[in-house]
Amino acid sequence: MGMAVLPALLLSTPKARAAEHITLTNGFDMMCDHRVADGDRVRLYLDGTNFVEVGAAEIAGSEHVDLPVVKTGAKSSAAAVAPANRLSDGELHQLLTKPGQAHDLDVDLLASVVKQESGGQVHAVSRTGARGLMQLMPGTAAELGVGDSFAPGQNVSGGTAYLDGLLKRYHDNLALALAAYNAGPAAVDRWHGIPPYRETRAYVARVIHEFNRRIAARQRSRVTVVTQVASAHP
To answer: Is 199 assigned a catalytic role?
Structure first.
């Protein structure tokens, strides 16, 4: 994240999977595996089956991105932590709900950042000394009023506040805010965009891809509930 905090990187980089970073005219950024054009409409596939359909004119730009494929059992730079310290999806959602509401940020976005930063491990420590779920450096944690980076509530509250500040700084441009969370605002400002650092570009791509995946899963769940309710009340 910002202030010299780097994400947990794989010690060895597996073969990358091609993806596309799409920027829409409304400022929204998303990752897609591929696109299919149909007249003036374009389907942006989040994975093999789920897609978002937009007008061709709504696509402001695109950029090829290589998404590293994480092999099962691959180790990250975060310190090894006992399984008991890894939060379940339910526990993580509950933990992130309050700070998400306080800063009006989507819980699934925060969960996507946590997944990339620490893998949900409460006591994760990176090679650079970043700590906890959203990987706060000691100095950054102190500035955010976080007294104990290994206290989940304090850590995610501080990390959420920091991300919120970056989103405001970059006028809700998610890609730039994530790049600043990873490489620091100074790097983003220097390059007037996402810095040309492989780690940062991969970080932004992975977080946005995971966020899109979670949104698609949430939408599928809502459709299932509506269908079940409709079936129960003919």
So the answer is: no
Contact predicate 121/156, CB 8 Å: no
C-alpha distances (whole Å) from 217 to each of 47, 49, 67, 70, 101 are 11, 12, 20, 21, 21
Walking along the chain (234 residues) 10 residues at a time, the average pLDDT comes out as 38 54 70 83 73 82 66 38 70 96 97 94 87 93 95 97 97 95 94 91 92 90 58 55
Confidence at residue 222, expressed as pLDDT on a 0 to 100 scale: 72
**CA-based nearest residue to 201, from 171, 175, 219, 225:** 175
Distance set, CA 192 to CA 61, 64, 108, 165, 179 (Å): 16, 19, 27, 18, 11
The contacts of residue 11 (CB under 8 Å, 6+ apart) are: 74, 75, 76, 77
Domains (ranges, CATH) in the chain? 74-232 (1.10.530.10)
pTM of the model: 0.65
Residue 80 pLDDT: 37
Q: Out of 20, 58, 91, 117, pick the active-site residue.
A: 117
CA–CA separation, 89 and 211 (whole Å): 14
Dihedrals phi, psi of 196, to nearest 5 degrees: -80, 45
Instruction: State residue 77's pLDDT score.
Output: 37
CB 98: neighbour CB atoms within 10 A?
A: 14
8 A C-beta contact, residue 60 and residue 23? yes
